[in-house]
Amino acid sequence: MAIWTPEQKTKTKKLKTEGCKQVFEVEVPAPKAADAVQTALVRLQLTAKLPGFRPGRVPLDQIKAQFMPRARAQAADDLIEGAVREALGELKLRPVAMPSVGNLKFPEGGPVTFELHIETAPEFEPKGYKGIALAKKEAKASEDEVAERAKQLVEGNARLEAAEGPAARDHYLVIDFTLSRDGQALKGGTGKGELIDLSSDQTVEGLVDGLLGAKKGETREFEVKLDGKPASCSAVIGEIKRKVLPALDDDFAKDLGVENLAQLKEKLAEIVQREHDTHAERDLQAQTDKSLLDANAFEVPASLVEQQLEHMFERLSERMGPEGLPEAEAKKFKEQLAPEAEKAVRLQFIVARVAEKEKVEVTDADLAAELEKTLSAAETEKDKSRAKEFFEKRADEVRAMLKERKVYQLIRESAKVKAEKAEKPAKAEKAAKA
């Protein structure tokens, strides 16, 4: 093992700081670099195969002649790995992402020099998390809202019955149809037993107008527009149906599992109230987050923002189905999401720093209580088994979640919360006027 003098040890010099990124120049002295090359050559000698020599028996001068570029590359990799590890230890830095290396120079017989780029957590003192002014939007379930939910229940339990006479706007038709253009059937333009609601807009422009007045068993030929282009439609009317709504009474309530209509309305009022309470809580959380972000402006590591952006984009893409978005639209969508990704990362640092400053900790008892709560809410033994496995394998994530919850609870306890009457949604106002 080589013993290096102070002059022969790796040297590190800070070049610049850009936000959370620090750039250092690292120099591995020439003697150390030469030793690494020699070591790489010896390793290559053990496995090298050259004509006229047995494996492992090739003379070192032949190895140098044939494999020097490879030996220097291996030596550089080894030196960089060791130098980076040594530099991080001496600088006492904790990177938030894998450090990167650039501008590598390794002249023959000289030292190895390179730039070391390190992203670290931002240094800041958390501010403005005590005494936050919050407005709690309070709303009570109204009779109009309950009546609207009851109406939706009735609509959801409607049935279709055969109707007499020609097709009207309030009818449903069961049809077989073919869409064509210039005498040729369009791909995907046929259907059998399709249910058409004549009271609703259709993707095929002119379809409803062409079917109004039709009788059961009739064949209709008419012009339509598909994607803005003219097309022809041939439709055979199989059935004409009308929607029949059940009466909103005690019998209807009993069919839904409650004793009477009054109890059904009570249940609906409870559901509406829970939704109001949930909305109010989300609004308080949004106000809290905004206040924390406004009070703590600092740069965050770009790599973490990029990771958060990809995570957010993937979650949204999953909702859009397997086809996803075209490349140009995806790029534009990511640009729109980028500010939210930055805020999410900044909030994580703010919460972590508040937890550190206020000495917020999550104990084993907290973890056990959360598991018990989760198990109590599980409906099946399979769900309970999955919950236990999740807590065992991802205990660190659960602890982080609980710590964040404790931090927000601490912030909320010191907040100045003022109750305000929530504005009635426009939809509810229209329903009430109707």
Helix/strand order: EEHHEEEHEEEHEEHHHHHHHEH
The tally of beta strands, per DSSP, is 11
Shape: extended
Major sheet description: 5 strands, antiparallel
Describe the structure.
- With 434 residues, this protein is α+β, with helices and mostly antiparallel strands.
- Among the domains are: 6-119, Alpha-Beta Plaits (2-Layer Sandwich), CATH 3.30.70.1050; 159-244, Chitinase A, domain 3 (Roll), CATH 3.10.50.
- It has twelve helices and eleven strands.
- Strands 6, 7, 8, 9 and 10 form a five-stranded antiparallel β-sheet that branches. It has a four-stranded antiparallel β-sheet with strand order 1-2-4-3. Strands 5-11 form a two-stranded parallel sheet.
- Strand 3 (100-105) and strand 4 form a beta hairpin.
- The protein starts with 10 loop residues before the first strand and ends with a helix.
- Mean pLDDT is 90; it is low at 428-434.
Short descriptors:
434 residues; alpha+beta; 12 helices; extended; disordered C terminus
